[in-house]
């Protein structure tokens, strides 16, 4: 008499096995591409091609997972855990690119954002790090798209001296651990203070270049202009606008919009201090 198969004797779905293999391989390739991008071991194009290959394998993992669900249901095969693992990892890897795709459809294709269209802050030191032809502001076409998509990005007006506003901007940039490539405080012969820094995106580590310009508006007021631009690509998916908006808010909070306290006047020469009205205690 034939023995009935017990739990665990069912053959494993090959589609589920391959779904897990593709998902694990895609995860390893994606991690490798991120390491390459953040470390700068290769140029951005081959690094992005590697990440694209990871997304292809993630898609295959999802496809094989759904195929294995059908075979497991119809033939009673094992491997449901493999299939769910492949599906989960595949969806996890494709979630962020899908989010970027949604941002690309809803936001304008710009990669250079500034608070001053007429006189954008200029790259002086960073021009040597940026690709050729990407240092000058793109022009009024980009400005029109920015006005429509991000009307809230405007210059920051502060009720503090320019030096205090510059110090607040320096504190914010340092707290964010940006790479400061040039810092010029406002002073005699240099009315506007300038900070040039390199910021990096949190996941892929793309390098974006930031310029902060602090201009005096009288003795006790200052204006802060910011420009943030990507080094590569024509679409930043809203990253530069988010950075400029958050940066202005942090500088505003750091400055406090409070004037520096004035020094107390010194005592006039020859003026005697009034003796204390309190009589000395008698010794017992």
Account of the protein in words:
The structure is a single chain. With 284 residues, the chain is of the alpha+beta class. It is 44% helix and 14% strand. The chain contains 6 helices and 6 strands. Strands 1, 2, 3, 4, 5 and 6 form a 6-stranded antiparallel beta sheet that branches. Strand 5 and strand 6 (222-230) form a beta hairpin. The longest helix has 32 residues, at 44-75. It starts with 13 loop residues before the first helix and ends in a 29-residue tail after the last helix. Residues 1-7 and 257-280 have low confidence and may be disordered.
Short description:
Helix content is 44%, strand content 14%. It has helices at residues 14-39, 44-75, 80-106, 140-149, 162-175, 239-255; strands at residues 112-114, 156-158, 179-184, 193-200, 207-216, 222-230.
Low-pLDDT regions:
1-7, 257-280
Cα shape: elongated
N→C terminal distance: 117 Å
If you average the pLDDT, what whole number results? Answer: 86
Q: How large is the share of residues in beta strands? A: 5-15%
Features:
284 residues; alpha+beta; 6-stranded antiparallel sheet; 6 strands; elongated
Sequence-ordered SSE layout with sheet pairings:
Elements: H1 14-39, H2 44-75, H3 80-106, E1 112-114, H4 140-149, E2 156-158, H5 162-175, E3 179-184, E4 193-200, E5 207-216, E6 222-230, H6 239-255
Antiparallel strand pairs: 1-6, 2-6, 3-4, 4-5, 5-6
Helix pairs in contact: 1-2, 1-3, 2-3, 5-6
């Amino acid at each position: 008499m034939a023995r009935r198969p017990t739990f665990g004797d069912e053959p494993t779905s090959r589609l589920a096995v391959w779904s897990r293999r593709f998902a694990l391989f895609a995860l390893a390739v994606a991690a490798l591409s991120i390491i390459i991008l953040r470390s700068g071991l290769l140029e951005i194009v081959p690094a992005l091609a590697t990440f694209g290959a990871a997304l292809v394998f993630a898609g295959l993992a999802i496809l094989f997972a759904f195929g294995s669900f059908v075979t497991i249901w119809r033939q009673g095969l094992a491997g449901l855990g493999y299939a769910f693992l492949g599906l989960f990892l595949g969806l996890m890897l494709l979630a962020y690119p899908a989010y970027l795709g949604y941002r690309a459809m809803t936001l304008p294709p710009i990669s250079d954002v500034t608070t001053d269209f007429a006189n954008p802050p200029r790259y002086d030191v960073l021009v040597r790090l940026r690709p050729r032809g990407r240092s000058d502001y793109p022009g009024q076409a980009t400005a029109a798209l920015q006005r429509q998509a991000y009307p809230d990005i405007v210059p920051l007006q502060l009720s503090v001296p320019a030096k205090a506003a510059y110090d607040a901007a320096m504190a914010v940039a340092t707290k964010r651990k940006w790479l400061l490539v040039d810092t010029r405080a406002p002073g005699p012969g240099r009315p506007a203070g300038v900070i040039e820094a390199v910021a990096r995106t949190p996941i892929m580590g793309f390098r974006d270049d930031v310029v902060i310009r602090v201009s005096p508006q009288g003795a006790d007021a200052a204006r802060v202009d910011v420009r943030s631009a990507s080094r590569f690509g024509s679409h930043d998916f809203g990253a530069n606008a988010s950075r400029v908006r958050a940066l202005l808010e942090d500088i505003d909070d750091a400055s406090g919009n409070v004037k520096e306290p004035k020094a107390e006047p010194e005592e006039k020469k020859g003026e005697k201090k009034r003796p204390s009205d309190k009589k000395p205690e008698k010794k017992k």
